[in-house]
User: What shape does this take?
Amino acid sequence: MNCLFYRFIIFVDQKLNYKKTIIKVIQVNIFRSYFFLTPLFILLGVTGCGSSDSSGSSNESSKSVTTPINPETPSITKTPLLDWNQQSDTYICEALKKHNELTIGTTFTPREDDKNDNALRELEKILETTYTNDLKIISREPRISTLSVEMLNCAVLTSLRSLPQVKFVDPEYALPLLPEELFGFVLSLGGDDEILPYDEFNPAFYDAQSNDLGYTEFLDQSVVATTNTVSVMKDHQIQKIYDEFEFFGSPEIGVAVLENGVVPQYMDYLSASGYYQTQGFYTPNEDGAEPDGIHPQQSDMLYITQLIKPLMHHGSTMAARVYKVAPRVTIRSVRASSFIYWYKPSQFNSVTNAILELAVDPEIRVISASQGTIIHIHKIERAIEYFNAHDKIFVVAGGSSIPLFKKFVGIGFPANLPSTISASGIKDTELTNGEYVLGTAAHGGPENDFVVEGQDASSPSTAHTAGIISLIWSVNPRLSRQEIIDIFIESSHFYQRNGKKHPQFGWGKVNAYTAYKKAISR
Assistant: This one.
């Protein structure tokens, strides 16, 4: 096994063109299905921490804690997210030896494109006159005031970071190590080559006038075993909206499922409604490469994802969850990265570009992102702020992992940001005597905003939350993003109980029926 693992690492190293990388193995864990995070972030060949503060996100970048931790809750130190901008110059330069691309951010104001472009031009002028022989500008993104540069002389990094125009620097480098038990884990999830099942009916075709069954009963006839949407509808009082108001959403509110794409056989099932579209943004690390399409690729996740069926189908199952909750809203499956865990520059770049493009897309008002990482990526943070500035809502998974690591891993990126709506899962309260208990793999923490009942992980919780938001927003599309967020908070469990956030479960689960009535009355 060790020999096989060693040969695999060499293979990965060659495929990613890190031919001189020295791999330092530390105990890590590959997490179970859905969006997963590891508390031990390891960089190839980059060891130790700099003298700078490495505690992760700055105060401005992390969500505030509305209420103090309950005295009865055990106090456990969580592993902080790595923030490159908080690391020493030496530490960053070591990373640049592995992948020489540095993102530099200057002054940024969401949606003020001209102002951002002018700020970027000012920084470019300084770089071109003062650092002519020290760096090379590769690309620019004026919408979020960032430059991508190649460092020719890393000795000037200290001087560069001291410029008042420079607000952050991020190396485009974040490749995690693979554990020795990787192959056993992959094979255990491999299963057989059975085609992913999909519904023999289309929820968008449900007609309350002509069908003897209620919508949730109608969905219960589904042959799909990969979702438990019907129970979510009942637990969150969504079925009362269907039964009492016969409302199933409207195409005015579109949801982009920011994922790894959908498998082909889901296309007919979803597209038959007329509200479903697909889009591809992910571009491999190759010069002049075009986006690789809308479907998960066999080369995803270091050429082994084809063996992990649940992760290959991740985008399909998440799109289906949104679709069943709100079958009349516009659904966009967006292949924004090659895998649900972001760990390389091509993913950072494609995710950023996808968010920016969706920000100006008039059909999209909500993003459902069951993806993320354990590093603070500032350009993605800015892209989300840009998206929100266009009166839209970004819903993201709080993170999932095996129970052992949940004690040490908090909410991941970008769910930790104040600009996102973080979702996670709790067990069925009928089985816990009404007590909130985190799902087997789901993460909790003060950055959490909402939870979905009967969910073991955060990915399905995110898709269902985005589906509920789109359903309620489509009741009254004139409402602003903040009004919708306020409605969700006011209709949530802990707000109604004491007006405060819980330190693990956020505002709790939402009563969709209450939110629906509030949206109508606004």
Observations:
- The first strand starts at residue 82 and ends at 83.
- The radius of gyration is 23 Å.
- DSSP finds 19 helices and 13 strands in the chain.
- Confidence is low (pLDDT under 50) at residues 1-61, 64-74, 176-193.
